[in-house]
Amino acid sequence: MGLKRKKNAGSPEVASIRNDYVRSVERQEKRQQAHKVRLFRRLSVFGVLVLLATIWIGTTIYAQSQSMAEKEAQRAETLAALEEVEKEQAQLEEQIMLLNDDDYIAKLARKEYFLSDEGEIIFTTPNEDHKNEEDEVKEE
């Protein structure tokens, strides 16, 4: 058992006892301190991993929401185009039905090609477009 003297600035010399108990208590304190340091390091690493995982999950969710928004916009455009095509198809089907009607074809031929029925006389009247063209020619 040895005595070790410590000097403090404000007090006289104090002797500390260096026996087995004191040494075992000091070792125990050092182990506890080392344990606290290791625990702090492990918690720090775990915290960093959790932070990285959170960032990764957040960016993935953001990218997926952007992708979903783009696909929804594309879907809306496609539905609008489909609606347009369906309208055009309905018009074309109606035109097909009309072209299968002989009376409609006769009216169309009379109108477009100036054909006449028996006993009809065809008179042509000038159109507005035709009048405008004549006015332009006169002005030149």
| Domain module tally | 1
How would you classify the helix and strand content by structural class? mainly alpha
pLDDT < 50 runs, ≥5 residues: none
- Shape assignment: rod-shaped
Number of strands: 2
Radius of gyration: 50 Å
Question: What is the averaged pLDDT score?
Answer: 84
Strand content: 5-15%
Spatial gap, N to C terminus: 131 Å
Which H/E pattern describes the elements? Answer: EEHHH
By DSSP (H or I, 4+ residues per run), the number of helices equals 3
> How many strands, what sense, and barrel or not for the largest sheet?
2 strands, antiparallel
Q: Helix share of residues?
A: over 70%
Q: Largest beta sheet: what is the strand line-up? A: 1-2
What does this molecule look like?
The structure is a single chain. The chain is built from 3 helices and 2 strands; from the N terminus they run ββααα. The protein is mainly α and 140 residues long. It has one domain. A two-stranded antiparallel ribbon has the order 1-2. The model has no long low-confidence stretch (mean pLDDT 84).
Characteristics:
140 residues; mainly alpha; two-stranded antiparallel sheet; 3 helices; transmembrane helix; Cell division protein DivIC
Offer a concise description of the structure.
It is built from 3 helices and 2 strands; from the N terminus they run ββααα. With 140 residues, the chain is mainly α.
Fold topology:
Elements lengths: L1 E5 L7 E5 L1 H80 L2 H12 L14 H12 L1
Antiparallel strand pairs: 1-2
Pfam families: DivIC
Protein name: Cell division protein DivIC
Organism: Planococcus koreensis
